[in-house]
Amino acid sequence: MATTTQKLIVEVIDARNLLPKDGHGTSSPYVVIDYYGQRKRTRAVMRDINPTWNEVLQFNVEKSSDVFSDMLELDVYHDKNHGPTSRNNFLGRIKLSSGQFVKKGEEALIYYPLQKKYWFSWIRGEIGLKIYYVDEVAPPPAVAAPAVEEAKAEEEKAEPPPSDKAAAPVSSDQQPAPAEVKPNETPASAVEGEQAAEMAPSEPPAGSETEKANEAEPAGEENGAAKGEMPAEGADQVEPEADSQSVQPNDHDNDIVLEPTSANWAPPAPPPDIIASTTSGSIPEIKVARTTSAPPPLSRPAIPTNYVSSVDPPDHTPIERSSFDLVEKMHYVFVKVVKAGSLPTNGNPVVKIAISSSHVTSEPARRAKYFEWDLTFAFARDTPETSSFLEVSVWADAGGANFLGGVCFDATEIPLRDPPDSPLAPQWYRLEGGGAHRGDLMLATWIGTQADEAFPDSWKSDTAGSRVNSRAKIYLSPKLWYLRASVLEAQDILPLTALKEGSFQIKAQLGFQVQKTKVSVSRNGNPSWNEDLMFVAAEQFGDHLIFYLENRQPKGPVTLGVVGIQLTAIERRVDDRKVISRWFNLQDPKNDKKGYKGRLHLSLCFDGGYHVMDEEAHVCSDYRPTARQLWKPPVGTLELGIIGCKNLLPMKTVNSKGSTDAYTVAKYGSKWVRTRTVSDCLDPKWNEQYTWKVYDPCTVLTIGVFDSRGAFDINGEKEATRPDFRMGKVRIRISTLETGKVYRNTYPLLMLGNSGVQNMGELEVAVRFVRAVPTLDFLHVYSQPLLPLMHHIKPLGVAQQGMLRGTAVKLLAAHLSRSEPPLGSDVVCYMLDADSHTFSMRKVRANWSRIVNVLSSLIDVVRWIENTRAWKNPTATILVHALLAMLVWFPDLIIPTLAFYVFAIGSWNYRFRSRHKLPHFCPKISLAGTVDRDELDEEFETMPTNRSPDIVRMRYDKLRAIGARVQNILGDFATQGERVQALVTWQDPRATGIFVGLCFVVAFLLYLVPLKMVAMAFGFYYFRHPLFRDRMPSPALNFFRRLPALSDRIM
């Protein structure tokens, strides 16, 4: 097999506005690049401060070490051979991390500003680069053919021939002889394996030499941890060797397994009494009778010292250090069934496992050299049961008609595996009872936690439905790009039309996205538009961007030409540089034959400098641009432990019983996680932990709980698949978390529906944020803009952003619904709040309450001033007079006094901060408890409406009343502004004359009297005692209210 080596390609394109260094206003620059100890340079461009190199430099990608880092350092110098200097002058440098590099096909031209080497260096300009990885195929090494043939001959000699005679059992302390050889191994490794097999010592068994040759076991056996151990119950319980490669499900057909045939096994001892008992609603339970004549359960190999025999005493359970430190440990009994041999059946047997009250039947075995399953089962073990047994039985078919044999284990003797240890090797066990007199089953059993690597892909006793659709999975959103299509003009369209004047329009289509330009009227057949059309595209790019040239006619549009463009051929950019436009020939839509039907002038590019919005801006979980080259290093790590739910409501009825199959979905950035589905439980426990990289602390983590509404049986009938039921969600803002602190809280799951607020249960989670950068760098993030630079250079409109966001949600839902297990479109829309933008009178009142709450502090200040002015507290009023005098005579103290006052308020509120409970949905702020039922029905009504005409008329009348009120408020605001304008517009000559004359007198007095005296006099006049004030409005207010406005001119 050919090997590949990774290369880093650096295309040095050009530089702009470099510093002159040769004394004549120019420079002769060249570039030097260092990467992993490799140094390369470009040629020098003579006397040019805007040089162009267009050179490609290639570097080998090595493993990171302490000597060489993964940073790419680029330095620009002025060549000393072209100038008055005797040394190479420094022109600038940049340093880039390897995390910013992309693979070939995703590269884009990026201009990096040159940086200083020293504090007092004078540097300017920028350099344009393209940096990407490529994989080069290395030629395969020369292989000697005779060595391969010799190795194959040795393998054929080492494989034992099948024999029909029963052989004596092999001694358990016999060491295996030959080793397994994979077909894809190199000849050298195969020869070394044979030499090691020949050097392995072996002890002859009690049988004949012929039987010894037939029963040689391979050296690559998985039970090497128990070398030289003798079974306790005689020779009939000898364990054959375990094929280490048979554990992998995809490698059975390619492995050369050197194992004894089934005919070499001696007949087993008389089987114990088998008692078959049937439990209601479960599979037949096979129990080994515990009598004095029957042998005990099959003995287990010696347990290593780092295992314990039971989980009963918690003091003896080793505490492993794993990544699951935010959740509780959940112990499971793992059973890994690999394969079986020497079964007297020609069908596809199944394995049935029973422990305590849990029963499961495996899928039918695959037929190969052995009967293969390679399945792992995990049975919940909440409380240790000393009297429980693990029973594994093999049946000829799933119906349980023919029992082939079984193995029984005492649950207290199953070892406990710590996650740092290697996986437990499967071993061969003799099947007892049934018709398999020489049958053997390879399996492994141990007790572990949810941190075990076999847990995610195993069948679990608490899951619902099929094994695949109930697993915990991690999903990644596809990378979304904004596709900008600039439609400029078309030419040579007139011969296609018989009209003297035509109305032309361009319709662009990308998948389900359709956009149109404005209609352009042209008399010469060369219409122009100059419009930008924005689309959302998801990698991998498989669609075509299709443009239709339509002629708008009274009977309808007529397509004159069409052009299709592959997305892979469109250029990518990360800034606002101008993209080169191209001409595309139009084709006849009715005829596939190529012919010239005019041409279309387009400018196409993928804008990687934008962040494709799939969430609302105020609850967004990621603000990074699409282009990976613009990503900044992460500032921390977010850890989430999903512990479980409590007191969930039953969501459906199964067999006349309330049931809930709950699972949780968490979304942050482009990473989605889904826990396993816990079957038929109102208090499910997941205890799963996940991590995310945090690039901006001002982001939000969203967690939702759903009830699986897939295909299930209801009263014996199977219903069709329906959308999963929403049970509530939780949002956690990362900036509210303290660094390194674990927040373990229980949140109510609130759902707002047509009937009001309903508490669906409680969700318990644990959250921790760990900072990964220095404190100053972390605080520097707060001074940076949320959205990337392109959102400020070329901002998108509000309506356009809403349209693009809806498109992005549809693409994400379509992508995640094709996963296994799928995330339904209703789940994705609920997590992204894609269906919560309908009109709601409740939200209108809630937003008004928020505005009043924000202005309440200002209202309190105004009230305090009025109370002070009214001398309700004479002491406070006298102190205010003293403060006024101090600030007037020392105006430099105004800003420091205000700053200190804000500091005092913040320090006082620090005592009342939330230390443990994180913010959550508040029904009081949402006005969910006081809302009218009719308003809720209107909020959750579909569009278009399906209500009766009377209800629609009532809602329309109410909306008209609210509109009239808003209309009056807007009119009042306009009136006040027009009165301000009327002060100097001479609409009322007398009022304007009074105001202008008064302004002249004020200006003359302020020239003569110091400003401090005026401010002091005005302050004391304003705070004068009520005995010296009139109850009537002030003359200034009366004057302002008499000014004219334009409200009397509105019809």
From TrEMBL:
Protein localization: Membrane
Residue span of region Disordered: 145-315
MF terms in GO: metal ion binding
Lineage: Eukaryota, Viridiplantae, Streptophyta, Embryophyta, Tracheophyta
Organism: Durio zibethinus
InterPro entries on file: C2_dom (IPR000008), C2_domain_sf (IPR035892), C2B_MCTP_PRT_plant (IPR047257), C2C_MCTP_PRT_plant (IPR047258), C2D_MCTP_PRT_plant (IPR047255), MCTP_C (IPR013583), QUIRKY-like (IPR047259)
PROSITE patterns named in the record: C2
Keywords annotated in UniProt: Calcium, Membrane, Metal-binding, Repeat, Transmembrane, Transmembrane helix
Designated name of the protein: Protein QUIRKY
Membrane topology term: Multi-pass membrane protein
